[in-house]
Amino acid sequence: MGARRQGSWVEAFDARSALSAQSSFAGSDEKPAAPKDKRPHVVILGGGFGGLRAARELAKAAVRVTLIDRRNHHLFQPLLYQVATAALTTADIASPLRQIVHAQENTTVLLADARAIDADGRRVVLDKGEIAYDYLIVATGVETSWFGHPEWAEHALALKSADDALAIRSRILLAYEAAERTDDAEERARLLTFVVIGGGPTGVELSGALTEIARHTLARNFRRFDPATTRVVLIEGEPRLLSAFPEELSQRAAEILQRMGVTLRLKTRVTGIDEHGAHIGDESIRAATVLWAAGVHVTSLTATIGAPLDRQGRLIVEADLSVPGHPEIQVVGDAAHVTLEKSSEPGGKDETVPGMCPGAIQMGEHAAQNIARAVRGLSTQPFRYHDKGSLAAIGRSTAVASIGRVRTAGFWAWVLWVFVHIFYLIGFRNRIAVLFDWGWLFATRQRGARVIVGSPRERR
């Protein structure tokens, strides 16, 4: 075994057995060796929207596919905030990767953590071993950025994974439980103050949900205080919320949140986060729960390729989504910097594909098609992005929607938001479960997933 090169277990795992049920040699237990699969090997890093779409698009291609992810499931991240706010369970928005691709004969799923990409050697270094590829699709997404203050992570909760959502849900519910126990009015006010940092879709959706929990879900659940006295503060550094939306929809979202009772602090930068709450210069907002929805950056894996990166760490790719100098590597989703067009404003920056699931899905599909073309000896095609619009839910039955020339807010925007999210969900079971939970929430205002999980040390 010592003479074999590192990672040979992967090749053995990928080989397709061609042994017959019985030996062709009478009176002998020997069997002929299984021939190695000669099809080009496509490795996909990441089972999110882009990576999963690429894997499914390659189902009928003359390649063998290995889909690698550090988790065994695909997570529908646009609804992760609903797990955090007890409207849905994790199982409602997550599907096992192996189940999703189980019918694809040419696809293998590996639970592993990619540590580095050796572009010249055409191999990926994993947490255990390595794997060689003929073609590589990088779809590793993003992770939380603390803007140079990693110490804030000790006191604020971000929302990027199922574990994050469950931690947030427990922190929210534990705050109410602690408020029921205390006799100190100032401490109760701190426990019932929730600070959300970041005015993008996640921050807006979290703020609206927190307000509904306080005003409706937990109404008459406590005897020693009124949950409606809860204070939700949304902090955004830019002049308006939802900066990727048209200005009129940003203004409408702000008006709706303020009517719901959310305190908005725009053009405001957080200067510190500690056990007491959030700090804005000399001002301190005392809060037991601080939720971080302010920023993300691309995983450090992209830097190991040795190709040009933008300031967010995204790989600056060619028009066909390939890495400059490495046409065998395609980059999709949040890991890719894809230039669309120059802004018409003076000094404006290049427009890039927004970091939302429709863009990642389109890029994943296109990357897979380019690889299938390359395998057949055809030239690759440039990527063309089709803007599907933007949606953000603000409350139980209110949303804002910008789709083409249609810009609307209110109930019908929320109906559109519901159908779009159901359409993109993976799995029939998940769609039915989410529809049922949303129907129950709409009819009763009750959130069925109000279960506290986590160790006692997390209780504050």
Topology:
Elements: H1 8-14, E1 41-45, H2 49-57, E2 64-69, E3 73-75, H3 80-84, H4 90-93, E4 94-96, H5 97-100, E5 107-111, E6 114-118, E7 123-126, E8 130-132, E9 135-138, E10 142-144, E11 157-158, H6 162-181, H7 185-191, E12 193-197, H8 201-217, E13 231-235, H9 247-260, E14 263-265, E15 272-274, E16 277-280, E17 283-286, E18 289-292, E19 296-298, E20 315-316, E21 322-323, E22 326-331, E23 336-337, E24 339-342, E25 350-352, H10 357-375, E26 390-395, E27 398-403, E28 406-410, H11 411-424, H12 428-444
Parallel strand pairs: 1-2, 1-9, 2-5, 9-22, 11-18, 12-13, 12-18, 13-14, 20-23
Antiparallel strand pairs: 3-4, 6-7, 7-8, 10-19, 15-16, 16-17, 21-22, 24-25, 26-27, 27-28
Salient structural properties:
disordered C terminus, 6-stranded mixed sheet, 460 residues, 5-stranded parallel sheet, alpha/beta
Bin the helical content: 25-40%
* Structural Rg: 25 Å
Number of helices: 12
Largest sheet: 6 strands, mixed
Average pLDDT = 88
Compute the separation of the termini in Å: 52 Å
Please report the total strand number as a whole number. Answer: 28
- Read across the widest sheet, the strand sequence of neighbours is 5-2-1-9-22-21
Q: Based on Cα principal axes, name the global outline.
A: elongated
Unreliable residue runs: 1-34, 342-348, 456-460
As a percent range, the share of strand residues is: 15-25%
The chain-level structural class is: alpha/beta
